[in-house]
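F.,

This is the one I mentioned.
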């Protein structure tokens, strides 16, 4: 195994050390079963927490860790978690790694200092009784940049990319496997979007084949399962495009419901349960070649497909405020959100999280806080969780 040292500077020795460790057997105290730790899915495809079926709506707290990783004095995530806990919003999905190669520099040079920052985030969630769905490689580009390999090397089990992936996964999962804050582990975010695009579609620097994703995702799952065989695993994938099946076959046209089901299950393989989707009302459009559906019907279709395969469904991202005003269909933001949340509740989806909460690093029109003009949306989520907790 040859490693190019050019451009690594002070990173070179830590990288070499990590790559050497990546060739060693992984170890760690294994979590086999614990009803009090996180979420799992039973053999019927029912989402379970503390031994009973579970429904809940949380938030995407994307940059809770990234903000303090980039600005050590920024510990504002603590107040963010405290507000979630006080309002009974049960969980948050966070990026548990870097977004760029630069974000991983501290991990490569001072690993314990890096984890002390992540420790503080996890402990803050624990203190506030907020569960976490940890997206370990939200941006796969961060790893590619850190090890100086192209994106396609994610598909090579012997690449430096994959060695890094296995080591970082082991470090994170083994460190936090016994934390009551961790509800589930996620591989990445929306890697399915570029699958099987036709020439000229999408950005060339973000292309990824399904085969590359599957190879890396199953490797990630294997590392996690050696340590934690209990908590749910999610891919982080989006809902399939309306023509994904046709694109995969080299053709054109809108997929039927059966073809949609094939791709939905393909994109959430093997141990990944629940099925992960990202979908909002504005994304529906012409969906099935054999029938048209509403947003609620689309979600219900996903639930039905999941149940037929023994899998639950997690609506991991839904956008509260359409980016295009016309997508509201003449409704106000509040009316649109009332309808959206109502469709989610009626669909039978057991788990959902709104995009996005308390985002600090980048302005976002969908940003929700308890003090901005969209605070009522968080209150509606609080009320829905309270109603669900009151159900048997």
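My design for it:
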């Amino acid at each position: 195994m040859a490693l190019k040292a050019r451009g690594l500077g002070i990173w070179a020795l830590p990288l070499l050390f990590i790559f050497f460790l990546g060739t060693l057997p992984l170890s760690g105290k294994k979590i086999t079963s614990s009803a009090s730790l996180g979420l799992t899915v039973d053999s019927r495809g029912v989402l379970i927490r503390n031994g009973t079926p579970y429904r809940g709506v949380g938030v995407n707290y994307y940059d809770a860790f990234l903000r303090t990783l980039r600005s050590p004095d920024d510990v504002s995530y603590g107040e963010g978690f405290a507000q979630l806990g006080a309002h009974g919003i049960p969980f948050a999905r966070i990026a548990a790694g870097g977004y760029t190669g630069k974000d991983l520099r501290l991990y490569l040079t001072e690993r314990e200092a890096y984890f002390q920052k992540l420790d503080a985030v996890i402990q803050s969630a624990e203190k506030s009784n907020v569960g976490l769905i940890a997206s370990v490689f939200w941006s796969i580009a961060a790893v590619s940049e850190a090890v100086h390999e192209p994106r396609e090397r994610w598909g090579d089990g012997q690449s430096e990319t994959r060695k890094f992936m296995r080591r970082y996964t082991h470090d994170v999962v083994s460190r936090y496997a016994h934390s009551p804050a961790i509800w589930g582990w996620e591989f990445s975010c929306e890697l399915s979007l570029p699958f099987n695009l036709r020439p000229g579609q999408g950005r060339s620097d973000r292309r990824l084949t399904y085969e590359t994703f599957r190879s890396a995702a199953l490797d990630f799952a294997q590392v996690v399962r050696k340590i934690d065989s209990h908590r749910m695993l999610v891919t982080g994938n989006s809902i399939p495009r309306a023509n994904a099946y046709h694109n995969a076959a080299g053709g054109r046209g809108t997929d039927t419901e059966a073809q949609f089901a094939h791709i939905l299950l393909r994109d959430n393989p093997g141990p990944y349960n629940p099925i992960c989707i990202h979908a909002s009302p504005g994304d529906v459009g012409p969906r099935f070649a054999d029938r048209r559906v509403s947003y609620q019907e689309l979600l219900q279709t996903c639930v039905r497909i999941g149940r037929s395969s023994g899998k639950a469904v997690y609506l991991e991202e839904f956008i509260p405020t359409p980016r295009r005003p016309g997508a509201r269909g003449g409704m106000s933001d509040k009316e649109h959100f009332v309808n959206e949340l109502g469709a989610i509740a009626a669909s039978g989806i057991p788990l959902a999280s709104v995009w996005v909460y308390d985002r600090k690093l980048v302005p976002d029109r969908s940003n929700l806080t308890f003090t901005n003009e969209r605070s009522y949306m968080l209150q509606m989520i609080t009320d829905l969780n309270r109603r669900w907790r009151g159900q048997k």
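Residues 1-28 have pLDDT under 50 and may be disordered.

Talk soon.
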